[in-house]
């Protein structure tokens, strides 16, 4: 943190589930703040790092990036594997550059693990591809029952944080347990440990029904903006394991391959996006440091912006720490 005009300026993180409007609010806060001091936005998103995956990951537009500099977008090709540890390193480089130039930073993200990784400097475990491949084959052959029971026996704390049918997390936990010789739960400060931070974290919250409607509207807007064409351009190249998990891309690949109708693909995307939004909010609710800003009725101004939430977040950021 540093002091300007007798006010302590801290890094601001604007968080929230998908379709909550956090990127629009971040742009509004940055635009207002930049009249007094330079402000730049850092995307903390596991999917916006991939080039060519623009519409489906809701990247800021070229105009928005021209108005406010953005970082950690379009880092690699979709075929390239990208780890949380690498994101930490990329973030550290950006943070050092921003601080050296005396610029205020606004972090914007919905990827909870990435947010905690950069806010708290999590101790990220390594990767053991051979072990992972063996475990993935086992889960594909036999399901998750036995492997989840193994996690529960070897690391009860980790098992309590993993849903029994979440194959990806179960495999990752066992990969780390076998590869490192340490409990998976021993990495990082722990899900229930939230150290004091110089990052002011705020989150935007909608009631469930209104957010569900926004998700539906956004998916249809993305389709109208050419999302299917974007996916078609990616169809001939292999996607990394991380990129392939981006919401909606698998469903549209399935449609392009003739295995599902477009209407069914869109319906599935909406459903899975709603489910993901619930998981995102649940993740952020665990962190007592996050201050929630509820979106009330009549929130939008004539230009469709959440002006009241923006004003309240801006006022909170300007308060002395």
Short description:
The chain has 13 helices and eight strands. With 321 residues, it is an alpha/beta fold. Helix 2 (62-67) links the parallel strand 4 (39-44) and strand 5.
Could you give the count of β-strands? 8
Q: Roughly how many Å is the radius of gyration?
A: 20 Å
Strand neighbour order, sheet with most strands: 5-4-6-3-7-8
- Overall geometry comes to globular
Mean pLDDT: 90
pLDDT < 50 runs, ≥5 residues: 1-9
Total count of helical runs of at least 4 residues: 13
Helix proportion: 40-55%
* Largest pleated sheet: 6 strands, parallel
- The arrangement of helices and strands along the chain is EEEHEHEHEHHHHHEHHHHEH
Name the beta content range: 5-15%
Our measurement of the CA-to-CA distance between the termini, rounded to an integer number of angstroms, reads 9 Å
Structural class: alpha/beta
Structure description:
With 321 residues, this protein is of the alpha/beta class. The protein is built from 13 helices and eight strands. The strands form two sheets. The chain has a six-stranded parallel beta sheet with strand order 5-4-6-3-7-8, sandwiched between helices. It has a two-stranded antiparallel ribbon with strand order 1-2. The longest helix is centred in the last third of the chain and has 24 residues, at 262-285. The N and C termini lie close together (9 Å).
């Amino acid at each position: 943190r540093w002091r300007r005009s007798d006010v302590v300026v801290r890094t601001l993180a604007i968080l929230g589930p998908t379709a909550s409007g956090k990127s629009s609010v971040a742009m509004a806060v940055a635009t207002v703040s930049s009249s007094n001091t330079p402000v730049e936005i850092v995307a903390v998103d596991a999917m916006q790092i991939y080039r060519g995956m623009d519409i489906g990951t809701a990247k800021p537009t070229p105009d928005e990036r021209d108005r406010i500099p953005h970082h950690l977008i379009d880092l690699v090709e979709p075929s390239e594997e990208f780890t949380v540890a690498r994101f930490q390193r990329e973030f550290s480089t950006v943070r050092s550059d921003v601080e050296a130039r005396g610029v205020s930073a606004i972090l914007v993200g919905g990827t909870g693990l990435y947010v905690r990784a950069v806010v708290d400097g999590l101790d990220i475990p390594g990767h053991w591809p051979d072990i992972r491949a063996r475990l993935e084959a086992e889960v594909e052959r036999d399901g998750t029952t036995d492997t989840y029971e193994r996690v529960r026996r070897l690391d009860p704390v980790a098992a309590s944080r993993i849903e029994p049918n979440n194959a990806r997390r179960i495999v990752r936990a066992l990969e780390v347990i076998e590869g490192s010789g340490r409990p998976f739960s021993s990495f990082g400060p722990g899900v229930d440990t939230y150290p004091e931070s110089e990052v002011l974290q705020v989150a935007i919250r909608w009631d469930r029904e209104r957010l569900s409607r926004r998700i539906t509207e956004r998916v249809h807007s993305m389709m109208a903006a050419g999302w299917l064409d974007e996916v078609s351009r990616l169809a001939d190249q292999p996607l990394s394991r991380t990129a392939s998990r981006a919401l909606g891309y698998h469903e549209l690949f399935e449609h392009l391959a003739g295995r599902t109708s477009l209407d069914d693909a869109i319906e599935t995307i909406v459903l899975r996006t709603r489910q993901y939004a619930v998981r995102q909010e649940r993740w952020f609710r665990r962190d007592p440091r996050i201050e929630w800003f509820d979106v009330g009725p009549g929130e939008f101004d004539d230009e469709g912006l959440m002006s009241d939430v923006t004003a309240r977040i801006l006022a909170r950021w300007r308060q002395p720490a």
